[in-house]
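Good morning,

Attaching, inline, the backbone tokens for the sequence recovery test we're adding to the shared suite. The designed sequence is right after.
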């Protein structure tokens, strides 16, 4: 299928931006540039939005809570933002979290986990797991139902959602009812056919992903660990029911779809949906990309059904 016309317009706008030299790139400088790339978009109105501090693996972390309705005992959806484990923050994903909260009916809490290269693997997955445990423990004080907990994330954030699901199963809690994965990072090898086909020209590039992995992993030998590359895990049967969204013109497409196949083979109920004509990150473009809004609505409907 050809590139979607709205996505083509987005790519044309991005084409005028300076292209980083990843062989010389400073992570902190790139973070400052990329995190301010998109102007703020007015988001869905909420009954409550507030910043809070949650427990990480090595100290407190910033987080943001989105309550769609002024009601007690709403489901809890813990969200982990994307950005290659290096960039992204609570503000870059504010609009997406608001939309997920409004459309799923769950309280969404977005976690500002520690970023690489300042905090390398496994800091981020351990932060995300600790934060999830803390939120479940404090659920009654936050007006949430600790028996209805789901995880969501986009790209690297989806990788972290998978890591939290794995740790929760291994450590016997908390119970995760569902996970929603938008174009997940699942394989540090960066060698799939879609990596070759869409290596450049479609927003996320192969060179960019390879640089992200270099920043994230202390050593290449850790790439095969399940918390880093969930596609390479020996066993996926303990993971919760899953919605997994991929984009046609995305280097990560094949590794996401391979994970969905492995989840199904392991007996995990999995809904996989590829969105043709789309690129990596398209769900965050929902305010101005129609198919992004469709994917977001479908994923939120899955979450609503799973948590109610």
């Amino acid at each position: 299928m050809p590139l979607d016309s709205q996505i083509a317009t987005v790519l044309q706008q991005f084409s005028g931006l300076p292209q980083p030299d990843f062989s010389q790139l400073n992570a902190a400088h790139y973070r400052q540039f990329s995190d301010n790339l998109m102007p703020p978009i007015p988001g869905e109105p909420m009954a409550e939005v507030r910043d809070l501090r949650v427990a990480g693996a090595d100290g407190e972390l910033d987080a943001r809570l989105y309550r769609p309705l002024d009601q007690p005992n709403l489901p809890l959806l813990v969200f982990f933002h994307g950005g290659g484990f290096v960039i992204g923050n609570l503000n870059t994903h504010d609009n997406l979290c608001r939309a997920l909260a409004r459309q799923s009916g769950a309280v969404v809490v977005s976690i500002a986990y520690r970023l690489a290269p300042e905090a390398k693997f496994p800091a981020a997955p351990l932060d995300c797991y600790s934060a999830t445990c803390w939120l479940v423990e404090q659920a009654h004080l936050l007006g949430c139902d600790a028996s209805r907990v789901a995880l969501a994330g986009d790209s690297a954030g989806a990788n972290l959602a998978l890591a939290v699901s794995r740790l929760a199963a291994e450590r016997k809690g908390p119970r995760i009812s569902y996970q929603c994965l938008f174009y997940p990072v699942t394989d540090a090898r960066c060698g799939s056919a879609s990596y070759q086909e869409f290596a450049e020209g479609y927003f996320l590039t192969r060179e960019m992903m390879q640089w992200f992995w270099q920043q994230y992993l202390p050593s290449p030998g850790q790439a095969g660990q399940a918390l880093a590359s969930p596609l390479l895990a020996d066993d996926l049967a303990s993971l919760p029911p899953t919605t997994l969204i991929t984009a046609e013109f995305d280097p990560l497409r094949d590794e996401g779809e391979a994970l969905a196949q492995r989840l199904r083979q392991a007996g995990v109920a999995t809904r996989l949906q590829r969105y043709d004509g789309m690129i990596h990150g398209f769900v965050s473009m929902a305010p101005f990309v129609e198919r992004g809004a469709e994917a977001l609505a479908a994923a939120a409907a899955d979450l609503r059904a799973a948590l109610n």
